[in-house]
Amino acid sequence: MFATLVGADALDARFAALPAGLAAGLEAKARDLAAALVAKVQDEKLSGQALQTRSGALKASITADVAMDGGTLTATVGSFGDVKYAAIQEYGGHTAPHEILPDKAKALAFVVGAGTVFARRVEHPGSDIPARAYLSSSLEESSDAIVAELAAVAQDAWDNR
Fold this sequence. Notes:
Helix content: 40-55%
Structural class: alpha+beta
Strand content: 15-25%
Radius of gyration: 26 Å
């Protein structure tokens, strides 16, 4: 007695395509999710929830990078660029005493009480900066949805194999 499996080559091809199709689907979904996380950080956390916008430099520095290297997919959302205060705002910390000098004028100007004070330099005593987690809190709030959406991509790839 002999048995012949009709469509074995087609089935084999569908299973062989599963890893590539899954990887492509996960990469596309990771790009969408990373962009949504960037928007959440910029539009919510850096627009008053965690920090108030002053210059917009920190908000503008928040970007995402998604990379597929072999079988590893990595999505990174963070502050990219030369925003020196990004980390201390996220994690908190202490600044050492330091001198403040004007860089665009001959003197510094600031308001004290009801008057304006001008100075060529100021000795700053240092600061204790509390953590104002704008990145990690966004990820924490979004993590369940991110996991669910990535799992749905995997399920869809399996269902459509």
